[in-house]
Write a structure and sequence with these properties.
Layout (H helix, E strand, L loop, with lengths): L7 E5 L4 H12 L3 E5 L3 H9 L1
Parallel strand pairs: 1-2
Amino acid sequence: MNSLDGKVALISGAARGIGAETARCMVAAGARVVIGDVLLHEGQATADA
């Protein structure tokens, strides 16, 4: 994956599964990540991880 420094990613469905893992990978690559999900508590747990 290319460096994502300075990029912003918006991920819907990021509370768990593929969305959560995508968010983690993008953060690891340097992106600032905004997540959204209808599962409030699970989404917060993903954001805190």
